[in-house]
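Limitations

Structures in this collection are predictions, not experimental determinations, and the ligand pose is part of the prediction. Treat each record accordingly. The example that follows, with magnesium ion as the small molecule, is included so readers can see exactly what is and is not provided: the inputs are given verbatim, and the output is the predicted complex.
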Amino acid sequence: MASPISDIEQAAEVLRVGGLVALPTETVYGLGAAEDPAAVARIFRVKGRPPSHPLIVHIAAADQLDDWVETVPDTARLLAEHFWPGPLTLVLRRGHRVPLEATGGLETVAVRVPDHPVALALLSAFGGGVTAPSANRFGSVSPTTAGHVRAELGDAVDFVLDGGSCEVGVESTIVDVTSDIPSILRPGGVTREALEAVLGRSIAVPSTSHVRVPGQHPSHYAPSARVVLVEPERVVAEAELAQEAGHKVGVFVPTGFADAAVKAHAVVTVPDSVDAYAHGLYGYLRKLDQQGCDLIIASLPPEEGLGLAIANRLRRAAGPRPSR
Ligand code: AMP
Ligand code: MG
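Predicted complex:
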């Protein structure tokens, strides 16, 4: 599964000529391009992503941060020191070399140093920043294996680097550090608690809606099957009712309810460890789609540690779907 040196060199060459490379990171697979307007435009075309949705610039080390942003406030420096390489993305004022195409027209830019040997080897072989969102079609489930990328994007990607399955399994935590008061724009692989311990203060997270009230969360991170969230103690009963009503139900049986022999089309037993749950989450959603489920019944884990990111993704997977 390790990528030989020759693969890294080939992938770097693909980036140099404006091509697209799918690269493994510790969070999910990214769809990378050089920091060049035409190459960046290809990412948006392949993903079917609206141009107003910004990308993340991946760099090899924290000491390159100054090349990409206007200024680096002390808070950003502190967080980079503690969490890079790692699943933390910092949003800062855009430096001049970052094309507006990569920031969705914003005057801010999102930057991170990924913690994956293949990603880091590619970044140093390429010698620049690699702009990359997740390597999936806009709105769908992020890929956590090279196989997921190939199945979803196929020939639309020029080169797929295989670095095995992504350890963290959910995307990075995005923190806005453009003002004196940092805030979490998206929960992810670095926990709120870890950020607060380093900052020595509490940090705001985006507002969350209640179970069954998708509210303002448009669909994202979503499988083809409809996702319905219920309270943990209702999961098994709701799944069986829906299955009896003629649905092909996939069910995420929560921790503590794993003994029940559930009458559903497909069953995922949620792991006890939240790390293992995050690692497996997108794979489970893909598998239930593959097994032909049209409905997925799940509940939210406690929203602490990595549970905050898992709950965020499940809510958005259950959000309204405008055009499907
Ligand atoms: P993805 O890795 O596919 O989730 O896409 C990159 C993520 O970074 C998206 O959720 C973007 O909204 C977010 N992002 C990138 N740049 C910025 C920025 N300047 N401000 C806020 N969010 C950003
Ligand atoms: Mg994405």
